[in-house]
Amino acid sequence: MAPLGQAGPAPRAALRPALPDTRLRPFTRGAQGEGVPPASQQLRPSTEAGPNFPATRRPLPPAAGRPGAAAAVAAMGEFEVHRVRLFAFLPSGVRCVSARSSSRLAAAHLDGSVEIYDLQANSFQEKVIAGHETRIPEAICWAGGDRLFGAGLSGDIIEYDLEKLCVKYTLDAFGGPIWSMVADPTGAQLAVGCEDGSIKLFDVLPERIQFERSLDRQKGRILSLFWHSSGARIAAGSIDLIRVFDVKSGHAVQRLIVDRRLKGSHTRECVVWSVAFLSDGTIVSADSSGKVQFWDSEMGTLLQTSVVSNSAVLSLAVSEAEDSIVVGTSEGAVYQFQLLPVKAGSAVHQWVRTKPFQHHTHDVRAVAHTATALISGGLDGQLVIRPLMEKVESRSYEAAVRKVTFPHRRLVSCAREARLLLFQYPQHLELWRLGATSATGRDGEVLPVSSPPEHLLQLKSKGPEHIRSSCVSPCGTWIAYSTASRLCLYRSQLAGEHLALQRVPKVPKVACGAHQLLFSVDSTRLFVASDRGSVHVLRLLQSGACKHLHTLQPSSESTQAALLLAVSADGSWLAVASGGGQVNIYNLQKAKPHCVVPAHNCPVTALAIHPVTNHLVVAHSDQQVLEFSIPDKAYTPWSRKVQQQGLHRDWLERDTPITHIAFLPKRADQILLHDTHMFCLLDKSLPLPEDSAVLCNQPSLKQLSKMAQRSYAHAFKICKKYQPLLFVDLLDEKSLVVVERPVMDLKAQLPPPVYQKKFGT
Predict the structure, then answer these.
(1) What integer pLDDT is reported at residue 393 of this predicted model?
(2) Among candidates 128, 53, 1, 219, which has minimal Cα distance to 564?
(3) Around 264, how many Cα atoms within 13 Å sit in the side-chain half-sphere?
(4) Which one, of 391, 370, 303, 397, lies nearest residue 651 by Cα?
(5) Which residues contact 152 (CB under 8 A, 6 or more apart)?
(6) Is residue 616 predicted with pLDDT exceeding 80?
(7) How far is residue 623's CA from residue 607's CA, in Å, rounded to a whole number?
(8) 319 and 369 in contact (C-beta within 8 Å)?
(9) How far apart are CA 62 and CA 711, in angstroms?
(10) What is the pLDDT of residue 261?
(11) Is 709 exposed, middle or buried (0-12, 13-18, 19+ CB in 10 A)?
(12) In this model, does residue 444 exceed pLDDT 80?
């Protein structure tokens, strides 16, 4: 297989024999301390291990006073779990971040992708701009209101289109590679620091940016920039020097020489990786010798030095009130400095290092400081949001540290009929056939596989653009993927161990640049989510071709792209969630809008339509789960009850969103949902739990008497045995597929971190 992030040749099918995957690793311990078998084996969840699903031999009794609940619970049965660790997902390191007040956060990764987080909606990853091999940002910043700009070593300045989720345009700065970028306090100008030692100013116009002028060119690359709050001066960090420029004249008015004192060397260059220019004239610098220094910009003197690391300090950010600073180091540590009085009641203040945090294992190349949180991103791929305790009113959920390692969207699709899994990597797809077993066993027993999982196909994408979305049809005969500029559709024919792949030659141009792809249940149509909330419908022909049927447009004008799709099993309804949180429902038989789901104040994270009732289930970033009746154009009675009573506190305080919803067709009251850390079988026939009840109560119920079990049973049956979860789905009434990606496997693929001597070694 081609390495991740490496461009491959033209798309082709790689035919492989049926061999077990050598990357599989057994877990040594499970969620409850039990041993966990290798991933190529199939398991049946055990009630002793504490999963959601009670075995048929010991069904949970019904809740008291609810007739018929006993049959609903007993009918749950047991499930064969296909435990899969075949997906070698590896998050890309965070290169730079930029916060817009306390509402939005932009994070750029080393693969060129850019993620937008809604900090006011449970820090949900609401938008993703797919990566690009030649456009890797070294710096990003907000300017002109809600406009996002990036710049990198290609020498181009990029403006991102946050509605179409692509690059709007690029502009060459003509200064060589760009190392730094900053916006002025009003957001009307951009300054970029270039390889040739120049600082170039650009005016932010309504449609584009325009070069204005350059400041005096200096010797050495400009590695860091910070604009003073007055807009009159800019601080620039380079090698061994910090310069202060007057914006009006363009001349350097101050030159600060940074001390090179390093352990074991007095001749190595000192790189000023980051600077900040405070309103009182103080310049703060972070450099490669591990120091954070404070300077008087008027007098050119050093005020204070703090050595925080034996290696480099790579990033620095200041709070809006300028009373707190956060820095990130190459050892993975993050430190906070606070401006505190020298003694109680004193008017004299001094910068004091107060709080160290160790949430990363590798370089912390990016930090941001909002009014209520410290944000850091590292080469380990983690984005960590740590609330400031003194700024948080509640000391429970609001004070919890949130770590984003896995995407808030699905990278796995499943062909249930063919029992195939399609894994989406940045520049290729992998198609696997699940293993099978002919053995039977007792509850919780590991079953040997009679046929191992097969790697059927590796499909490489041409060009520098990364894959934005992908999907495999339920029958397994169609595979589609999209980048920012094209849609590729293939027809596959699997006969035994041989797979033939044929590319559909003429895909309608109107469907290029899809944000999301979805096949109909009967595999005869392909739905392509596009810009402005529209969806293109393609007919898949038996001859292996496709044609454009029509385009579904929302009833009200929308500027946001369609991001999530759900189609009904009978092919009559299509639900579309757009970037603004609006959910439109279309009548596919009439090819026109049917209704709009009443607006919720948080983004949609997952949605699905029940195959029998045609009820739409929607999960939001605030962990609310709503059910909407498509035929009746109204929320269902169960959904209204949820809104009146409220969901359990522990459910609402989960920090990862629901990313997939599935149903058991023969059990209309049951919904399967999953996030990164658990999957849940939600039984609507049982009562909702009160906050005083234990949410994950499956292990404890079996210790109680039958009478007590009736009192404590509730709707949420949660399993945390398998994690981290990238995908969970039902293959049929009796089997589940669970795709895991253990954190230890992720760390094993990362480069070695900076060596740190530990006690006793």
Answers:
(1) 65
(2) 128
(3) 2
(4) 397
(5) 135, 136, 137, 138, 139, 158, 177, 178
(6) yes
(7) 13
(8) yes
(9) 8
(10) 62
(11) buried
(12) no
The span from the CA of 443 to the CA of 409, in Å, is 32
* Residue the block writes with tokens 């730079």: 96
Measured distance CA(262)–CA(255) in Å, rounded: 21
Residue 652's SS3 state is helix
Helix (H, G, I), strand (E, B) or coil at 390: helix
pLDDT at 95 over 70: yes
759 pLDDT tier (thresholds 50, 70, 90): low
Residue 398, classed as helix, strand or coil, is: helix
User: How far apart (Å, rounded) are the C-alpha atoms in residues 560 and 162?
Assistant: 8
Of 136, 113, 124, 207, nearest in space to 168 by CA: 207
- The per-residue pLDDT for 559 is 84
Taking residue 384's Cβ as centre, other Cβ atoms within 10 Å add up to: 23
Tokens for 103, please give them: 């509402």
| Distance separating the N- and C-terminal Cα atoms of the chain | 39
* Site of tokens 């079988």: 681
- Round to whole Å and give the CA distance between 78 and 97: 46
| Residue type present at position 59 | P
- In angstroms, what CA-CA distances link 271 with 331, 443, 684? 17, 61, 60
Rounded CA-CA distance 685/683 in Å is 5
CB neighbour list of residue 594: distance below 8 Å, 6 or more residues apart? 573, 585, 586, 587, 630, 633
Report for 101-115, 397-411, 432-446, 549-563: range of highest mean pLDDT: 101-115
Residue 717: name the closest of 137, 5, 57, 78 by CA: 78
DSSP, residue by residue, 601-648:
SS-EEEEEE-TTT-EEEEEETTS-EEEEETTTTEE-HHHHHHHHH---
Q: What is the pLDDT of residue 105?
A: 97
Mean pLDDT confidence for 721-740? 93
> Other CB atoms closer than 10 Å to residue 585's CB: what's the count?
21
Query: Residue 33: CB partners within 8 Å, gap ≥ 6?
Result: none
Backbone dihedral angles phi then psi of residue 397, each to the nearest 5 degrees: -65, -40
Q: CA-to-CA distance for 70 and 658, rounded, in angstroms?
A: 28
Percentage helix, strand, coil for the chain under 3-state DSSP, each rounded to 5: 5, 45, 50
CA–CA distance, 436 with 447 (Å, rounded to integer)? 10
What pLDDT band is residue 240 in, cutting at 50, 70 and 90?
very high
Contact, 51 vs 45, CB < 8 A? yes
Evaluate if residue 57 carries a pLDDT over 80: no
Residue 695 C-beta-side C-alpha neighbours within 13 Å: 17
**Mean pLDDT of the region 527-545:** 93
The residue type of 168 is: K
284, 297 Cβ separation under 8 angstroms: no
Distance of CA 336 to the CA centre of its chain: 26
Instruction: Give the mean model confidence (pLDDT) for residues 32-51.
Output: 34
What SS3 state is found at 70? helix
Other residues' Cβ atoms within 10 Å of the Cβ of residue 399: 14
Record the pTM.
Answer: 0.88
Residue whose entry in the numeric block shows the structure tokens 């430190």 = 335
Backbone angles phi, psi at 167, to 5 degrees: -75, 125
Distances (CA, A) of 440 to 38, 452, 697: 18, 17, 28
Q: Are 452 and 458 in contact (CB under 8 A)?
A: no
Of the candidates 438, 466, 442, 462, which has an alpha carbon nearest to the alpha carbon of residue 451?
438
In this structure, the strands spanning 80-84 and 735-740 are parallel
In the three-class reduction of DSSP (H, G, I as helix; E, B as strand; rest coil), residue 743 is classed as helix
Question: Quick one: tokens of 19?
Answer: 């061999």
Q: How confident is the model at residue 631 (pLDDT cuts 50, 70, 90)?
A: very high
Give the number of other Cβ atoms within 10 Å of residue 452's Cβ. 16
Note the Cα 377 to chain centre separation in Å: 13
